[in-house]
Automatic annotation (TrEMBL), chain B:
It is a single-pass membrane protein. The gene is atpF. It comes from the Bacteria. Keywords: ATP synthesis, Cell membrane, CF(0), Coiled coil, Hydrogen ion transport, Ion transport, Membrane, Transmembrane, Transmembrane helix, Transport. F-type ATPases have 2 components, F(1) - the catalytic core - and F(0) - the membrane proton channel. F(1) has five subunits: alpha(3), beta(3), gamma(1), delta(1), epsilon(1). F(0) has three main subunits: a(1), b(2) and c(10-14). The alpha and beta chains form an alternating ring which encloses part of the gamma chain. F(1) is attached to F(0) by a central stalk formed by the gamma and epsilon chains, while a peripheral stalk is formed by the delta and b chains. F(1)F(0) ATP synthase produces ATP from ADP in the presence of a proton or sodium gradient. F-type ATPases consist of two structural domains, F(1) containing the extramembraneous catalytic core and F(0) containing the membrane proton channel, linked together by a central stalk and a peripheral stalk. During catalysis, ATP synthesis in the catalytic domain of F(1) is coupled via a rotary mechanism of the central stalk subunits to proton translocation. This is ATP synthase subunit b. It is found in: Cell membrane; Endomembrane system. Belongs to the ATPase B chain family.
Length: 238, 174
C-alpha cells in the first residue's frame, strides 16, 4: 500500500487533475443520460421513470418551498435538481470500486476532492450574491450586511466565507472519509492473510451501505443549504 | 501499513488545481444548461401542462355539474307544471262530466215526464171514449128495455131478471 498519485498535468500555468476531470465528466454524463432517458417519452399520464423524475422535481420543489416562497424560488428549481442529481451521482461513483493504474488513482468520487466541492460551494454562494444584487438592488443588498447592527459587518463577512467553506468541506469530508475507509478495507484488511477478503467482506458491505446513505443525505443537505443561502440573500422578509 | 493507507483515495495535492476547478465549473454549467434544455424543461412543461389540464378539467366538471343541476331544476319545474296541468285537465273533465250527467238526467226526466203525461192523456181520452160509448149503449138499452117492458106485462121478479139479462148481454157484446 503506497500513496496514490494524482495524474496532474499543467497547461497554461494551470494544474489539471486528469482523474478528477475524468470523473467529473463521467458523473455529468451519467446525470445527463439518466435525466434525458427518463424524460424521452413524456406523457400526461406519467409512467415508470417519468414518475421518478417527477418525484425528484417535487422533492426539490418542496426543499425550495421550505426556505422561500415559490415566486422567488421557482427560478432556482433547475439549479436545485441539477445540484442534487449531480452530487448524488458523484457521491455514488466511488462506492462500488476504485481503479488504480500504475499507482495513480483514476476512478473515485469527484466529490472526494476538496477543489471540486468547494467549486460547487463557491458557485452557489456566488449565485446567491448575484441574485441578491439582481433581485433586491445593490443598496438593499449592501444594507443586509449591517443588519441588525452596523458592528455586525465583520461577522457577516466572515459568515460568507464560513458558509462557503463549510458547504464545500462538509461534502468533501463525508465522501472522502467514506472512500478512505473503503480503501482501507479493500486495500488493507482484505489483503492481510489468506482469508482477508472474507473478513473484509462484512464491514465492507456495511460501510458501502452506509456510504450510499451518507451520499444521499449529503446530496440532500447540499441542495437544502444551497436554497437556504439563496433565500437569505434574495428574501426581503427578515 | 494502515497509516500509509490513509492517503488512499487522496491524491497527493501539490497546491490548488485551478484547472480542475475551472473544468468543474464549466462542466457543471454546461450540464445545467443541457439538462434544462433536454430534460427539466420538457418535464416541467409537461407537469405544468398537466396542472393546467387538471385545473381545466375541474373547471369544466364544475361547469357541467352546474348545468346538470340547472337542467334538473328545469325538468323538475316542467314536471310539476305538467302534473298541475294534468290535474286541472282532470278537474275540468270531471266538472264537465258532472254537468253533462246532470243535463242528461234532467233531459231524460223531462222526457219521461212528457211520456207519462202523454200516456195519462191517452188513458183519459180512452176512458172518456169508453164512458161515452157505455153511455150511448146504456141509453139505447134503456130504450130497448123500456120498449120490452111496455110490450110485456112483467112481474117485478121477471123485470129484474130481464134487466140483468140485458145487462149481461150488453157486457158480452162489448
Amino acid at each position: 500500500m503506497l500513496e496514490h498519485k494524482a495524474p496532474i498535468v499543467t497547461y497554461f500555468g494551470l494544474n489539471f487533475n486528469l482523474a478528477d476531470m475524468l470523473m467529473i465528466t463521467i458523473a455529468s454524463a451519467v446525470v445527463f443520460l439518466i435525466a434525458v432517458l427518463s424524460t424521452r417519452k413524456l406523457a400526461m399520464k406519467p409512467t415508470g421513470v417519468q414518475n421518478f423524475m417527477e418525484w425528484v422535481m417535487d422533492f426539490v420543489k418542496n426543499i425550495i418551498n421550505s426556505t422561500m416562497d415559490w415566486k422567488t424560488g421557482g427560478r432556482f428549481h433547475v439549479l436545485g435538481i441539477t445540484i442534487m442529481m449531480y452530487v448524488f451521482v458523484a457521491n455514488m461513483l466511488g462506492l462500488p470500486f476504485s481503479i488504480v493504474i500504475n499507482d495513480t488513482l483514476w476512478w473515485k468520487s469527484p466529490t472526494a476532492d476538496p477543489g471540486v466541492t468547494l467549486t460547487l460551494a463557491v458557485l452557489v454562494v456566488g449565485l446567491s450574491h448575484f441574485y441578491g444584487v439582481k433581485m433586491k438592488g445593490t443598496a438593499a443588498y449592501g444594507k443586509e450586511f449591517f443588519k441588525p447592527f452596523w458592528f455586525m459587518f465583520p461577522i457577516k463577512i466572515i459568515e460568507e466565507f464560513a458558509n462557503t467553506l463549510t458547504l464545500g468541506l462538509r461534502l468533501y469530508g463525508n465522501i472522502y472519509a467514506g472512500e478512505i475507509l473503503l480503501g482501507l478495507l479493500a486495500g488493507g484488511l482484505a489483503q492481510s492473510g489468506n482469508f482477508g477478503w472474507l473478513y473484509a467482506a462484512v464491514p465492507m458491505l456495511a460501510w458501502q451501505g452506509f456510504s450510499v446513505f451518507v451520499g444521499a443525505i449529503q446530496a440532500f443537505i447540499f441542495t437544502m443549504l444551497t436554497m437556504v443561502y439563496l433565500s437569505h440573500k434574495v428574501s426581503t422578509d427578515h | 501499513m494502515f497509516t500509509s493507507s490513509l492517503v488512499l483515495g487522496a491524491a497527493a495535492h501539490t497546491g490548488v488545481n485551478w484547472g480542475t476547478i475551472l473544468f468543474q465549473l464549466v462542466i457543471f454549467i454546461i450540464l445545467m444548461l443541457l439538462l434544462k434544455k433536454f430534460a427539466w424543461g420538457p418535464l416541467m412543461g409537461i407537469m405544468k401542462e398537466r396542472e393546467e389540464h387538471v385545473a381545466n378539467e375541474i373547471t369544466s366538471a364544475e361547469k357541467s355539474r352546474k348545468e346538470a343541476a340547472a337542467l334538473v331544476e328545469e325538468q323538475r319545474n316542467m314536471l310539476k307544471e305538467a302534473r298541475s296541468d294534468a290535474q286541472s285537465l282532470i278537474e275540468a273533465a270531471k266538472k264537465q262530466g258532472d254537468l253533462q250527467r246532470d243535463e242528461i238526467i234532467a233531459a231524460s226526466r223531462a222526457e219521461s215526464e212528457r211520456i207519462k203525461e202523454a200516456a195519462k192523456l191517452e188513458i183519459e181520452q180512452q176512458k172518456e171514449k169508453a164512458v161515452a160509448a157505455i153511455r150511448e149503449q146504456v141509453a139505447s138499452l134503456s130504450v130497448l128495455i123500456a120498449s120490452k117492458v111496455i110490450e110485456k106485462e112483467l112481474s117485478a121478479a121477471d123485470q129484474d131478471k130481464l134487466i140483468n139479462e140485458y145487462i149481461q148481454e150488453a157486457g158480452e157484446k162489448r
